[in-house]
Amino acid sequence: MHESTIEIGLASSDSDLEQILLLQQQNLTFTDDGFVTVVHTLDKLRAFHAVMPSVVARQNGAVIGYALSMPRAAASLIPVLAPMFLRLEQLPALNGQRWYVMGQVCIAAQWRGRSVFDGMYAEHRRCFAPQYDWLITEIAMRNPRSLHAHARVGFVEIDHFTDDSDEWSVVGLQLAGTA
Question: Which pTM was predicted?
């Protein structure tokens, strides 16, 4: 049987957002393949999407991966992330730069290692480089798979810190002036 092509683009419907939530729920447990830590609701995803759509990967119309977009204007939508946005606002490396946050990236287990991750970040670059210089995210140091994958696609560390919950690497992908 022929495997259909993976399509990567912007989330465009409630169905996409509902499938993001399902994939998120399936990846809350820590494994060697990584994990997600913040749980969203459909209303929160709708609010994010209204400000800036997220990138999804689909196969036969089903969401198999997502990379959530969180512009600074959406910082108040998830209070637990307020300290992260405040910290980013104060980083010298981002002073005067146009940036947004990768709220979370996740790929269904059976699609990992098939360039879906790279494709979603390429789509972020394609869609958002005209408006933004940097895409920023925080990665728990206990998630080495995510750290390596982000470095592979061009993210560089711009900060490192420890808080009450974990040790974190703040990484950025330069969007402007890149292809």
Answer: 0.85
